[in-house]
Amino acid sequence: MSGTGTAGTGTGHASCHHGEILQGVFLDSRGRHCSGLVTLPMAGLGTRAEFTRRPGTAPEDISVTPDDRTKALRAAVLAVRECAALLREPVCGGQLRLSGDIPVGLGMGSSSSDVTAAVRAVADSFGLRLPPEAIARLSVRAEQASDPLMLDGRPLLFAQREGRVLEVLGDALPPVVVVGCALGGGRPVDTLSLPAQTYGDEDLRAYERLRSLLRRAVGEADPALLGRVATASARRAQHILRHQEFGALLEITEHVGAVGLQIAHSGNVAGVLFDPASPGLERRLRRCAQALEDGGIPVTRTFTTFTTSEEFMNGRAHSGSGRPTGPDTSGRRTRLSAF
Asked: What three-state secondary structure class fits 75?
């Protein structure tokens, strides 16, 4: 639990994700129904936080810049109390500063990234490094539901409203190339405005089948099976999300020979998934990008689930779309660049 913070100032960073591969209802180890998700990690974008403690100030005297990041502020308050208790020090106030380039409201985990980075910065200011399980617990308390950005990047089935891992599916996702895009014209989505999801026994059976298939896809490093699971999960989410372009996205996925598609289950970001071993891959990627653009679906970024020295086709990630200093979910469209 050691850290590197000096003079009462600490820093923290957290990445983002590209929506979900699977999200629904599952059984936990005790046989209870539990909401869970498996995210699609994406490197390159993230939040950086800096926290400066002010010893001797009131514990409620914590401010945040930009001043609309209320979830990160709540997380900082909770983290200060946690760290002070661990070290048996007085609780105090401080200043939290956030910066980042994750588009807000597209379902890429911008709030969870803010919260995770904030908690890490607070802990660092105390000279501590909190374990991922503690950060997950604080994150859920701060924002009610959290993405698993504080964990190690392995494919996990994560209970987002409880902050705990339901299953480690394996060491790494199957290799796929993802052509990212934005539905709904790139408009942000207020997740709190989405209808509450209710699940029945049939839903549970369907999601447990998908969980089993995803476990197999990870174990066998099978891109096609990963695509099948992601597409099925995206289809089931349509009764809540109702993306107008979803039918066109499915047609494009089939037409260009992709293995499937994935979406954010609480936003407008989506991705078309390709097997990197497909013959004529770069031609397929270009055809996909052109078809999406022709269909009025903005293309954002091409990336992979495996490490590469550069992105396919040198796609730029949301160029010029840095985090606005408005509300956590603004009503403005996110500016997205094509390849």
From this structure: helix
In angstroms, the Cα distances linking 294 to 69, 109, 276 are 36, 28, 24
CA distance 66 to 97: 7
Handedness of CA 87, 88, 89, 92 (dihedral sign): positive
Has residue 334 got a pLDDT over 50? no
pLDDT of 51: 98
What CA–CA distance (Å, rounded) separates 265 from 44?
A: 21
Structure tokens at 290: 């052109």
Largest CA distance in the chain: 65
CB neighbour class for 138 (10 Å; exposed up to 12, middle 13-18, buried from 19): buried
What three-state secondary structure class fits 205?
helix
CA distance 168 to 278: 28
**294 Cβ contact list (under 8 Å, min separation 6):** none
CB 129 within 8 A of CB 1: yes
Residues whose CB falls within 8 Å of the CB of residue 23, separated by 6 or more in sequence, listed in order:
35, 36, 37, 38, 233, 237, 265
Round to whole Å and give the CA distance between 196 and 153: 28
Structure token digits, residue 309: 């020295």
Q: Enter the pTM of the model.
A: 0.86
Beta strand ranges found along 244-308 (DSSP E): 260-263, 269-274, 299-304
The C-alpha atoms of residue 162 and residue 149 are separated, in whole angstroms, by: 14
Question: Any long-range contacts for 27-35 (C-beta under 8 Å, 24+ apart)?
Answer: 27/204, 27/208, 28/159, 28/166, 29/166, 33/199, 33/204, 34/159, 34/162, 34/166, 35/159, 35/160, 35/161, 35/197
Q: Is 309 exposed, middle or buried (0-12, 13-18, 19+ CB in 10 A)?
A: exposed
Task: Identify the pLDDT of residue 309.
Answer: 41
Rounded to whole angstroms, the Cα distance separating 328 from 263 reads 21
DSSP 21-63: EEEEEEE-TTS-EEEEEEEEEEEEEEEEEEEEEETTS-TT-EE
Please give the Cα distance from 331 to 313 (Å, whole number): 31
